Amino acid sequence: MKPLPPSSSAWTRSRPPLLRFLDTCLNEFSAETSGAVADYIPELGKADPAYFGISLATLDGHVYEVGDSRVPFTIQSMSKPFVFALALDLLGAGKVESAIGVEPSGDPFNSIRLNSENHPFNPMVNAGAIACTGLIQASKGADAFEQIRLALGRFAGRDLAVDEAVYSSESQTGDRNRAIAYLLKTNAVISDNVADVLDVYFRQCAVLVTARDIAVMAATLANRGVNPVTGEQVLTPYAISRTLSVMTSSGMYDYAGEWIYRIGIPAKSGVGGGILAALPARLGLGSYSPRLDKHGNSVRGIKVCEALSSHYDLHMLNRSDDARNAVIADYDIGKSPSRRVRRPQEREILAAHQQEVRVIELVGTLSLSAVDYVSRRLAGRPRPQFVVFDLHRVTSTTRAGARLVAEAFEELAALNVTVIISGVKRASKEWNTLREWTAELKNVRDFYLLDTAIEWAEDQIVYRYGGSIDFHETTELAEQPLLAGLGDNELADLASLCTVRTYQSGAKIVAAGDPADSLFFLRSGAVHVTLPDGVRLATLTAGMAFGEMALLEATRSADVFADMAATAFEVPLKAFERFRKQHPHASERIMRNLAQLLADRLIVANAKVDILTST
């Protein structure tokens, strides 16, 4: 019995695997009732211990949510990494690092103890966080808290408010933090009025967030400071990477070693019941459940992180990226030339020197290991004159990768090899990263389209080996490949049916969807054939035909534009059909020529497919 296909309603109700996994975590861990709600700040003790929400944000801006993911709670110590990163950017790394250490303390988060230099151990414990807030307070004065609140909002992608009741409760009961602050002032770590510094600190801890907010904030950390939902570069990659480093070693206080050993994701907890985890270049996770363990971490939140890391093998030190996967295709122009239809003399030159243009198409992240592999792979074959690196499938470029790219390009310049970059828009972040290191190099050209880059390199080969490309040259019907084999009388009869058309640069000669009612034989200039979605199919020069598919189909399937001033012979299709009936031998020859031209195009297309599937 043939199984029935699933209904369309079942398809629309289906859910992504990650969302189903989070639902499973929510259902399984809701039964966990160990731990207690924090009550040393009286207002926190009012939280409903049954609350449980989970959210996960991807780096393309999608946010999954289950349970009580929109229930607000105070950020508490989860503010610490973001304020530390803000201080690094606002005040400079030298100033911040001279006042606050980066070593794990092994003590609880509220320990009243400094390191051997009488500085806080790190910015994740209260002493370091108060010192960090004090540095911002000393620099920004009365605007300090607003700077912090706005920065936290940019990380979350929305404006964040303060829970005044929690702020007041924390202020009234924060004697331990006052003791820490006075210890810092005694040791000249903070210079401003202790009460003013603590007022800012208590307010930053009382900022309201949700599990969804902290997932987006964590994803922003994982995305080198770019909020994946808003697209804003919140803080510099330097500040973000240093912050993640400290989160890795100290984010979970005296449980940090166990955390990074078992879970392996930089994280930060807060006594309000939140945990955020940021897996670099992967995702951000946020959870909320007020019951805490003896270390001050959410019991259910830890279980969610453990399950996510274990189920999907996400430990950050267990990466399996293979640099060899960065190359999706590697070929010369003999295997896959440009879509430019060349004249016989040009084809002969390019066939004789096809190895002089090497094309390497890349995919994924342009990292140091990927660039190193590509450079060694390039050196493993004879040196070309031109190398095209196509980056349109590259999703990101690391600074290390960009720097190694520049060093590889410098070496190619010393060997008189011209580098051509394609697939990168000049307004993109990837372009800026590359140009930071390659702007001074004289051997680098760039084109957005790969085909344009290959075509330019082919032109240079033609020029270097004695050929010429004269776009102003005028050709006659006898030089048309589609009309090869026709006699003089046949060509003369066909010419009598033609009208010479003139087109200005940029003119649309043929429009997709229009009736296919004429053929064109390009007499001078150049045109390009483009699909309606913008994909360029071919570039044609004098001596080539276009619109010839009118012989096989009734409607135009592509647009044709003049690349420059051009002239063409136009033959109405009805008149051409009469010509074919009057000259059956010529008709047979034309259809044979058309079949050969189409076969040649298919061979080129198949060669590209073979390249992409065999690398």
UniProtKB/TrEMBL annotation:
GO terms for biological process: glutamate biosynthetic process; L-glutamine catabolic process. Substrate binds at residues 77, 126, 170, 177, 201, 253, 271. Keywords: Acetylation, Hydrolase. The keyword Amino-acid biosynthesis does not apply. The keyword Acetylation applies. It comes from the Bacteria. Belongs to the glutaminase family. Homotetramer. This is Glutaminase. The lineage of its organism: Bacteria, Pseudomonadati, Pseudomonadota, Alphaproteobacteria, Hyphomicrobiales.
